[in-house]
Hints:
mainly alpha
Amino acid sequence: MFGFSHTIPFDLAPPGLPLLLLLHAVIFGAWVLLFIVQASLVARRSIVMHRRLGWVGVGLACAMIILGCSAILLALWHKSLPPFYPPGLFIVRGIVGLVLFAGLLTAAIRLRRKPEWHKRLTLCAAMTVVVPGLERSLPLPLFGAAWPFVADGVLDLIALVGPAMDLSIRKRIHPAYVWGVGAIVAGQAVVDLVAPSPIAALMLRLVGAS
């Protein structure tokens, strides 16, 4: 949210953002805030409330996926991408990010009766959500064509905080982080391979954004 705070004055100025993008921002922000509330409830051992609010989070997550896809298409159709963002990279990065979020959160929900797995996979899912804000928080244009690797590297460092804490406290890394962080890194590799390929160009043609 910090990254998007830089653009809020311009986003709200007339004519302002389309209603769909405003709704997208509200729903994504609400999920992040709920994630923080849920973590605090677990810390206070308010497990019953945590479980009840968890289903609210599931509903928000479903809306996020729909609105996320819509926002990607709208940005491409209106050519409102950051100036350093090629359309092919934008669509692939956006779709892979949503797939990672959906996959990691689904795994976390299925393993909700295993708290050690649930909390780590949910944290990894949350990391995929912060990518757009993270990109807007960094001076990425200064890195030229290498900016995607810089952004990925910063996210990887953030993602490694959890495993590092496991090593410090538990003396071993929980398997959930192996899968969760591994999925994030694998997603980055997929983006690096697909974005410059004809597949990305085909995707743009299919959505009418070429």
